[in-house]
Amino acid sequence: MKPYLQLSGVNKAFGDFVALDDINLDVEKGEFVTFLGPSGSGKTTTLMIIAGFEDATHGAITIEGQSLAGLAPQERNIGIVFQNYALFPHKTAEENVFFPLQMRGVKKAEGLRKAAEMLELVGLEGFAHRYPKELSGGQQQRVALARALVFEPDLLLLDEPLGALDKNLREAMQIEIKRIQKRLGVTTIFVTHDQTEAMSMSDRIVVFSDGTIEQAAPPLDVYHKPTTRFVADFIGESNLLDATIRSADEGLADCPILGQVAYRTEGQPRLHDGQEVALLIRPEHLKLSRKPLEECRHASMTVETIVNYGDNALVIGRKDTAQIRVRVPGADVVTLEEGDECHVNWTDHAVFVLEH
Amino acid sequence: MAVTVSNLAGRKNLWPWLLLAPLALYLALFFLVPLGQVAMMSVTEPRVGLDNYEKVLTGTLYRRVFINTFFTAALVTVCCLLVGYPLAYLMNHTTERRAMAILLLITMSFWTSFLVRTYAWMVLLGNNGPVIWLLATIGFADPPGILFTRFSSTLAMVHILAPYMIMNIYSVMKKIDPALIRSAESMGAYGTSLFRHVYLPLTAPGIANGSVLVFVICLGFYVTPVLLGSPTEQMAAGLIGHQIEQFLAFGLGSAMAIVLLIVTLIVLWIYSRRFGLDRLYG
């Protein structure tokens, strides 16, 4: 079956600067895909090319096999929520939501009824006649969402829409956007540089860096099986330790810091003996103890810094030349002090190998 | 200790007033006092009573002059808008360099004394001037006089007042968030409907500000209509000058000035009540 939205070989250059280099991506109908990456990584440029505000230097974009080439933004039937919502200040919430219907020649009575339904869906019944400046940030966000959805777009694009909200509201809106997206089944592309947003909302995360796609995979795969060092580093916290493959068949590597280490072989790329690799161990997969734990691999380290977060703490220790970061539940950290010697323990399953 | 602190705070609150004092004093002495005298004269010269106001409000000549004043101010405002809006739009949508060049031309003209600009128009439009010569050359056997008509005074006033309109509209256009336009486009808005439903309403505060400014300045315009305009289509300021300089009718002139002042204040009041647009969009 053909993918719903397809980007093939999309390039974008501004003069000599290559903003996007050969972007290929298939998106299924109804999928919620997040573009994640640092600023300047090309995620917003890709979004603007899909929306039609920028032209790709090369490459094609199709929706249900139909090329978008040469179509103005007006002809694409794509709903967009902008970073600062871009609500019309001279129109009420209802008029804002009615606007795309008005532009499509929908009669006022019918259009306003649809706008009211959409406002109700986003939880804003009773706010129809307010002007944007009379609404809170979260409410404006909902109006923008209603306006982008009311004309039943083929695609919904969200450009860092939660950036301006405070933390609690942001979490509420994450759940809300996800709920509405599921309900309407609209294919959605969400751009963010916030990895927790990406983890909690997406069916699939596309990690951008320097104008290329580093990895496109479901959130937990991106977290547990990153394909590149950049992805491992950018998403979550990580310990990355250099190592050499001793035996690819047995899943053994030599690590100057940890000694001989067995690693998880499933979901792993093909490796060969003697290959230089990096070992990824997430800080929450490590355990600290005074004495080595049984049934675990272990190494000794010196505690350098303890950062308390209340419900958990980050312990940064040193072993030879390497820093090792360990997440520990809050209660466990009480007995530790900076400068203590302790053991760091892990199971083979926690070790994942990255090719250099 | 606490006393000193509160004293300091008290003195601090006085500071703005202290800084304002020289200007306030100056305005009181040289603006409010003479204005009071004018008001006084309007009800005492040549004798005590409201005779002057009765004349101004009922006399056909005066009514005609006031109507003409309003009509001219409205005409000039509309012309300034028609000239200014496209120019401001052009400035906002061309390269930075060109916008700066246009801005420079406008400010150069704006900073030139309007007396100089008025005389320049007299030279250009006079019977021996280049415009008449051009008209004669291209075949007008007997070109009509352009100077001393409503046309010439309106043209010069539009030239003099257009910068106010352009600056007001341009500053509002510059502040429009490009995302608003993009978002309108993404929702299917094209050229004219985009302009009508989004761009024009967003620039309305600039139009309102510019129009009020031009209209109010135009209501009291003296030099240009007197020097360039038709003697049969006098404006209020010109007639006031006439009353005082030619007929020494201080009372009547004062009454007209007060009526003009009150009308101007009413225009400003209506504006701030009904079109407090920048507050709405803030």
Please outline what is shown here.
Chain A contains eight helices and 20 strands. Chain A is an alpha+beta fold. In chain A, helix 5 links the parallel strand 7 and strand 8.
List the helices and strands and how they pair.
The complex is a heterodimer of chains A (356) and B (282).
Chain A: E1 5-14, E2 17-27, E3 32-36, H1 43-51, E4 58-63, E5 66-67, E6 78-81, H2 93-103, H3 108-121, H4 137-149, E7 155-159, H5 167-184, E8 188-192, H6 195-201, E9 204-209, E10 212-217, H7 219-224, H8 229-234, E11 239-247, E12 252-255, E13 259-262, E14 276-281, E15 287-289, E16 297-308, E17 312-319, E18 322-329, E19 341-346, E20 352-355
Parallel strand pairs in A: 3-8, 3-9, 6-7, 7-8
Antiparallel strand pairs in A: 1-2, 1-4, 4-5, 9-10, 11-12, 11-14, 12-13, 14-20, 15-19, 16-17, 16-19, 17-18
Chain B: H1 2-44, H2 51-58, H3 60-93, H4 96-111, H5 114-125, H6 130-137, H7 150-174, H8 178-186, H9 191-219, H10 223-228, H11 236-245, H12 250-274, H13 277-281
Domain ABC transmembrane type-1 (chain B): 66-271
Pfam family, one (chain B): BPD_transp_1
Main location (chain B): membrane
Q: Give the full name of the CATH homologous superfamily of chain B.
A: MetI-like
Biggest sheet character of chain B: none
- Calculate Rg of chain A over CA atoms: 24 Å
- CATH architecture descriptor of the largest domain in chain A: 3-Layer(aba) Sandwich
Query: In CATH terms, what is the fold-level topology of chain B?
Result: MetI-like fold
CATH class of chain B: Mainly Alpha
**Structural class assignment of chain B:** mainly alpha
The geometry of chain B reads as globular
Mean pLDDT of chain B: 88
Total helices of chain B: the number is 13
Helicity level of chain B: over 70%
**Which class best fits the helix and strand makeup of chain A?**
alpha+beta
GO molecular function (chain A): ATP binding; ATP hydrolysis activity; transmembrane transporter activity
GO cellular component, one term (chain A): ATP-binding cassette (ABC) transporter complex
Domain ABC transporter (chain A): 5-235
Keywords (chain A): ATP-binding, Nucleotide-binding, Transport
